[in-house]
């Protein structure tokens, strides 16, 4: 017997803001957690029956992707004093080991294969599989004390994004303390004797930095508390290892403090008011500097300055603001400042902090996308840059910080084999919308298309290799990323062009890109699927409402579909901070009307929709599952076509309880998309580099 999708009763619920009144027939679900649990259980049973036939395809994709994804998920070796720290994933493990290698045994930064083949002496500091004892937990981060005797790691046991921070004594192997209800960040003080964490309030807002002595149970002190509900605290250690930086962050501006050991907080009050600053500590043989990247209304693309620590009133401009150039956050090593700028081409330059004139040398440039990675250590004489791709692992190149060549290195991507990645510009509404198109070289006729976008919070969609997507591309699918307004691809003005009253521009840009793809003969009309998560899910669901006939399927991942009811509810976790992105409908009639015009839940109407797969995570505190429950119920009541499938998963907003669970969910989504796009994944195309 196949379980049917559940149907909830519609009940009148009137909202009123000013003179505007509207009825929400499923808002009552928000206040009844018992009914929510019952509905989610029924949705899970119905989804399991509907999707059961896709598991062979999903499992094939998963077997293909797991080794590639897991191998690249964890970063390179980093140096802490006289040792290398390296995450190593052993066959069959769900989480990596943290391995320590003495620099004397490996003068050059080691890699995982060396360790796995036991060619380098090493010590396992942390076996996460053993520590988790079979729990399906997400790991937030791992950090080693500068003294090398203490280790901290954070665990989210439920997916609620409330972490337990564990502190371990490496000399005895004993756990010293567990700190509950924290954010994922944990940093040891510069002397290694204490640990700093960020506590969460009842709405999961990081609001208080605490100092703990892990050897004295219950010994904690408040370092800084942020009472403004629109601000969130962040904590990190400078690359020099001499300071912890505390950031009180709003969406478009921030405030910062520095902390050095047991000393008092140092307010960085020389930073201009109303700016968003990214700060690092830099020093040379002669000077100490604060390296600061500033963004504000006058400098939306960023301006990089050096503030002398002993006299921050006299900053030096290293990279001035330009309309056609975006300045990336700098990388600092001993005596050097590495600067990355993105424009018509990407350039990597080095500032010699030991020279009297702060000499700048261009190290490399690239005509395409280039990402600057971290140096393996503070003392490193090289940095790693990567040429990313959607269809292969990033091509990594080491750049010497002691260049002996006569000029910069021209970095070029290697041959992409049977694939091509095109970076187009779609003219629309007086702006050029960046559009990335990925497909096989032998795809010349219009074919199936998977279209995605995000377009919120000034977040850029970066190039990322996904072996699962590559498998679908191998079978004739085109993958397109629309870099719509609201994102950060073209600086702050691009973000401003898609937020608050300009939010409808994201939807207009998406359709401009779709029109272009169809007119150019890349996409076959009607054979287009959508995929988007969180705020990207808002955009995709809004696109379905506007023109459902143009799509054959859609995947909405933890989608923010109930925008209006969320933004008028001050008790939800992100309402206060998110009003800078979506606006405040309680104080602005224009914002209220704007949100009502695109909010996906409010705009479900009696149209014929394509099949829609909606995923929710049971412990999501950012976008609670009740939003998708309301959406699914209204869809089934008011709309035809579909169906809408609601798939509950374990975990929180950012992913499943473990990386493996997240991969499984992703594989199932793509298997579902492949069916609706008409891809036969049981057949391997000729000349394919991937076989299932």
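-> sequence recovered:
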């Amino acid at each position: 017997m196949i379980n049917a999708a559940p149907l909830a009763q519609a009940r009148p619920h009137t909202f009123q803001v000013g003179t505007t009144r509207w009825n929400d027939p499923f808002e009552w679900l928000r206040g009844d957690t018992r009914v929510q649990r019952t509905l989610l259980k029924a949705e899970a049973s119905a989804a399991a029956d509907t999707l059961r036939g896709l598991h062979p395809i999903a499992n094939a994709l998963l077997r293909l992707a797991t080794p590639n994804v897991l191998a690249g998920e964890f970063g390179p070796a980093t140096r802490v004093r006289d040792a290398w720290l390296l995450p190593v994933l052993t066959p069959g493990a769900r989480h990596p080991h943290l391995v320590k290698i003495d620099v004397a045994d490996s003068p050059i930064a080691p890699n995982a294969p060396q360790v796995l083949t036991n060619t380098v002496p090493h010590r396992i500091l942390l076996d996460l599989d053993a520590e988790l004892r079979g729990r399906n937990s997400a790991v937030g981060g791992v950090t080693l004390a500068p003294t090398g005797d203490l280790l901290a790691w954070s665990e989210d046991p439920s997916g609620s994004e409330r972490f337990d921070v564990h502190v371990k004594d490496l000399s005895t192997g004993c756990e010293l303390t567990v700190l509950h209800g924290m954010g994922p960040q944990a940093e040891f003080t510069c002397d290694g004797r204490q640990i700093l964490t960020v506590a969460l309030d009842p709405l999961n807002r990081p609001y208080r930095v605490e100092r703990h002595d892990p050897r004295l149970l219950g010994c904690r002190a408040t370092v800084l508390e942020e009472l403004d509900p629109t601000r969130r605290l962040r904590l990190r250690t400078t690359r020099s290892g001499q300071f912890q930086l505390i950031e009180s962050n709003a969406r478009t501006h921030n405030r910062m403090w520095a902390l050095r050991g047991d000393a008092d907080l140092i307010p960085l009050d020389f930073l201009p008011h109303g700016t968003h600053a990214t700060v690092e500590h830099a020093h040379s043989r002669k000077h100490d500097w604060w390296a600061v990247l500033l963004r504000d209304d006058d400098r939306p693309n960023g301006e990089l300055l050096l503030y002398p620590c002993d006299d921050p009133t006299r900053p030096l401009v290293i990279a001035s603001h330009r309309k056609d150039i975006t300045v990336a956050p700098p990388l600092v090593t001993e005596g050097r400042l590495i600067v990355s700028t993105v424009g018509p081409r990407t350039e990597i330059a080095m500032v010699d902090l030991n020279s009297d004139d702060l000499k700048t040398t261009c190290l490399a440039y690239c005509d395409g996308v280039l990402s600057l990675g971290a140096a393996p250590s503070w003392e490193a004489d090289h940095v790693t840059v990567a040429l990313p791709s959607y269809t292969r692992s990033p091509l990594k190149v080491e750049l010497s910080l002691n260049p002996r060549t006569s000029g910069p290195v021209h970095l070029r991507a290697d041959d992409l084999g049977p694939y091509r990645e095109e970076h187009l510009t779609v003219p629309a509404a007086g702006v050029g919308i960046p559009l990335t198109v990925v497909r096989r070289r032998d795809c010349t006729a219009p074919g199936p298309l998977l279209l995605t976008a995000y377009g919120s919070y000034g977040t850029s969609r970066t190039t990322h290799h996904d072996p699962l997507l590559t498998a679908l591309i191998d079978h004739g699918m085109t993958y397109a990323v629309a870099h719509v307004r609201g994102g950060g691809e073209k600086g702050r003005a691009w973000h401003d062009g898609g937020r608050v009253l300009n939010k409808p521009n994201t939807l207009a840009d998406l359709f401009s890109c779709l029109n272009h793809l169809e007119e150019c003969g890349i996409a076959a009309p009607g054979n287009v699927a959508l995929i988007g998560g969180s705020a990207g899910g808002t955009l995709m669901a809004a696109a379905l409402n506007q023109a459902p006939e143009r799509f054959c399927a859609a995947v909405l991942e933890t989608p923010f579909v109930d925008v209006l009811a969320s933004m008028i509810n001050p008790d939800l976790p992100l309402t206060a901070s998110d009003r800078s992105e979506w606006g405040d409908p309680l104080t602005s009639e224009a914002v209220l009307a704007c949100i009502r015009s695109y909010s996906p839940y409010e705009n479900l109407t009696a149209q014929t929709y394509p099949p829609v797969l909606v995923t929710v995570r049971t412990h999501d505190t950012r976008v609670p599952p009740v939003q998708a429950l309301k959406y699914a119920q209204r869809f089934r009541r008011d709309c035809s076509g579909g169906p809408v499938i609601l798939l509950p998963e374990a975990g929180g907003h950012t992913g499943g309880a473990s990386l493996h669970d997240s991969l499984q969910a992703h594989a199932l989504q793509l298997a579902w998309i492949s069916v609706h796009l008409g891809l036969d994944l049981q057949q391997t195309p000729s000349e394919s580099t991937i076989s299932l």
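The chain has 13 helices and 40 strands.
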